[in-house]
Specification:
single chain; alpha/beta; TIM Barrel; 3 domains; eight-stranded mixed β-barrel; 17% strand; binds ligand C2E; binds magnesium ion
């Protein structure tokens, strides 16, 4: 899976609930803060209103004192009484001199003012009561409320208006709003007005505060319920997404992403477990016969059976196509093999009328930190190695991985290798049995890799045969051989037929014979000097195409030989049906030293049979004099093998073939 896809799925699945909840809480906090601020404004408005009205009346009193203090005491008394009546918040009024001596009292109780310096205790007390704001010098007294600082400041500067006791007492008199003392200077020298304001809480104010509080608490509760519901819905939705992301659309069970996530957690806790990839073979075939819907139903049923056969600590998922993944706990490999076999047996019962075939790749979990994706790939790789001989359960091993890495490397390099002429033609001479003279040759490819050095065909031909690159390589070899033959012909040399190998992959194209003809004709090489070696396995693919191609090649004048004759199963059949020119006896005939007389008997009879059919015989892989003598005795025509020569680079072959 690409990292982008991985990231997308992770994001989808793990959209964490916490940030979302925090976000909601943050929005709520904002709403609450706003409501609080609003309440505060209402509150403040009411209090400010009190203070302003008191202040206005207080200024009128000061004005009265200014005009009536000296000559109209009776008028002053009346005006003050009126002002007190008008404004019930104004409780007591004292006219005092600058030394705080009371000159006239309109108060309800006898009182005296004395100088009090603020020590720290008094300051703290006042601060606790909300009476003092800001830093004060020790010799200052400040009584300040709310925003009317400017007015109150004049009191502060005077310093000496109330005793500590009076302040503290007056505070305890009221429930919410303490008494406020305000001192105004008058226009008359040494005469000041000191007014005691009191702001009692009225029933109306109580109600307002109560209603605001109830509304506020109500708003918070409603918002909280609404938000909790939102969070709940979000969690449910997230769970649904998680389920969807981890559900396989074909079987309705777990999918690969879920398997990877969950398995990574399981292997951290379990001691011995293995990842198994289980494949229903020939699924496509099943779909072709019974339809895709039936195929999917089958997969669903198989998933159900698999889910039933694992424990709660184990895991199952559908990967893709007809592949399933299992995580199984086990004690030893024999026990696990038995268990997988039992599971497979169980699966085959899912369809009574149809024959179901399964194979499994097993990869042991070696460490708790293993990457599940890698383990699945390894198990998949093991499956691809299953064959009739290895059985249907294959355990992954490191050699498989190395093989795969090698294959990757070869596939990455092959195209450039062809362009850079890293593939070289080696020629292995074929000697006449009678004269023991070089009479033909086979072109064999060698890869001179810039980094790996000399690479044997056995290490890359099977890979090319699988990926189809062999077609390009064979064309290249045929071209190179044609060029060589053309060169030697132009130099007046006596040519010998050179055979090139034609892989079975070529037989997918209908005009193979024409194609070969075109390449050879480009260099004007007489066709009898080019021989084409086909392998018997090509015979299994499409008999008709092979037959037509062989006939066509022969009609163009090319020689056609059957390579590795005797290595396959239907040799005699192919002999009967294909009009071949040459048969190359497989080297294996001469390797079986266990029962030499028996082997010799078969070789002898095969040679005589081929002769009767008018074919030439070449024996491959001949390494000893005895073998040469035996083949000469049996009238075999040509011998190819290390006894005479290994495959040679072109220059060495030239020397051997054309230097006397
Ligand atoms: P092949 O076509 O049957 O070639 C004969 C193989 O036997 C060659 O192996 C050759 O080196 C080896 N050989 C010959 N004499 C002896 C001997 O006395 N003793 C032993 N032990 N081996 C001997 P090589 O070159 O490794 O090629 C292996 C196979 O690779 C070839 O088998 C052929 O099937 C394939 N191959 C090689 N070159 C090409 C090519 O250009 N195209 C295709 N399609 N296949 C090729
Ligand atoms: Mg060959
Ligand atoms: Mg051969």
């Amino acid at each position: 899976m690409s990292w982008k896809k991985d990231l997308k799925i992770k994001r989808l699945r793990s959209r964490s609930i916490l940030p979302r909840v925090l976000g909601i809480c943050f929005v709520d906090a904002l709403v609450i803060a706003f409501v609080l601020f609003f309440c505060y404004l209402i509150f403040l408005g009411q209090i400010t209103n009190y203070l302003f009205s008191s202040h206005k009346d207080s200024l009128e009193i000061v004005q009265s004192v200014n005009t009536s203090w000296q000559n109209n005491t009776a008028g002053l008394n009346k005006e003050i009484a009126d002002a007190k009546k008008r404004n019930t918040n104004i409780q007591d009024i004292y006219i005092i001199d600058d030394d705080l001596q009371i000159l006239n009292s309109f108060g309800s109780e006898p009182i005296s003012f004395e100088t009090v310096f603020m020590d720290e205790d008094v300051q703290e007390d006042l601060a606790e009561q909300g009476m003092v704001r800001g830093e004060l010098d020790v010799d200052e007294i400040a009584l300040s409320f709310f925003n009317l600082k400017g007015k109150i400041k004049s009191v502060i500067n005077l310093n000496k208006i109330v005793s500590e006791k009076q302040v503290i007492d007056s505070l305890s008199e009221e429930i919410l709003f303490p008494t406020q003392w305000v001192l105004y200077k008058t226009a008359i020298n040494n005469v000041n007005v000191c007014i005691k304001n009191c702001y009692p809480i009225t029933a109306y104010s109580y109600n307002v505060v109560l209603v605001i509080c109830i509304c506020f608490i109500g708003a918070v509760i409603i918002t909280a319920i609404y938000e909790l519901r939102k969070i709940g819905l979000y969690i449910i939705e997230q769970k649904k997404i998680n389920k969807l992301v981890s559900t396989d659309t074909v079987t309705g069970g777990n999918n690969k992403e879920y398997f990877i996530q969950k398995a990574a957690k399981i292997i951290k806790w379990q001691r011995k477990c293995a990842i198994i990839q289980l494949r229903l073979e020939k699924y496509r075939n099943f779909c072709s016969a019974y339809g895709v819907k039936s195929g999917e139903n089958l997969l669903e049923d198989l998933y159900g059976k698999l889910a039933d056969s694992v424990t709660r600590k184990e895991l199952v998922a559908h990967l893709e196509k007809a592949d399933f993944a299992l995580l199984l706990l086990y004690k030893n490999s024999a026990e696990l093999n038995d268990r997988i076999n039992a599971i497979i047996r169980e699966l085959t019962t899912v369809r009574k009328l149809q024959h179901l075939l399964f194979s499994a790749g097993v990869c042991d979990v070696a460490s708790k930190t293993d990457d599940i994706n890698d383990l699945l790939t390894a198990a998949g790789l093991a499956i691809s190695k299953s064959s009739d001989s290895s059985g249907n359960i294959v355990w992954f091993n490191e050699a498989m991985k190395e093989e795969q890495i090698w294959e990757r490397r070869i596939e990455d390099d092959m195209e450039n290798a062809l362009l850079n002429h890293e593939f070289q033609v080696y020629l292995q001479p074929k000697y006449s049995t009678k004269s023991e003279k070089l009479s033909a040759a086979e072109a064999l490819v060698r890869w001179i890799h810039p980094k790996l050095g000399f690479v044997n065909p056995g290490k890359f031909i099977p890979i090319f045969e699988q990926n189809g690159f062999i077609i390009q390589l064979d064309d290249y070899m045929l071209t190179e051989v044609s060029k060589l033959q053309a060169k030697w012909l132009s130099e007046g040399k006596q040519l010998v037929p050179i055979s090139v190998n034609v892989s079975r992959a070529h037989f997918t194209c209908d005009d193979l014979a024409e194609h070969i003809c075109r390449i050879v004709d480009r260099y004007r090489v007489p066709h009898q000097y080019i021989e084409l070696e086909l392998t018997e396995s090509a015979f299994f693919d499409d008999k008709d195409v092979l037959l037509t191609t062989v006939k066509q090649l022969k009609s163009f004048g090319f020689k056609v030989s059957m390579d590795d004759f005797g290595a396959g199963y239907s040799s005699l059949n192919s002999l009967k049906e294909l009009p071949l020119d040459i048969i190359k006896l497989d080297a294996e005939f001469f390797r079986s030293v266990d029962d030499l007389p028996r082997s010799n008997l078969i070789v002898g009879d095969t040679i005589s049979l081929a002769k009767k059919l008018g074919m030439q015989i070449v024996a491959e892989g001949i390494e000893t004099r005895e073998q040469v003598d035996f083949l000469a005795q049996q009238k075999c025509d040509l011998i190819q093998g290390f006894y005479f020569s290994k495959p040679l680079p072109v220059s060495e072959f030239e020397q051997r073939a054309y230097t006397k």
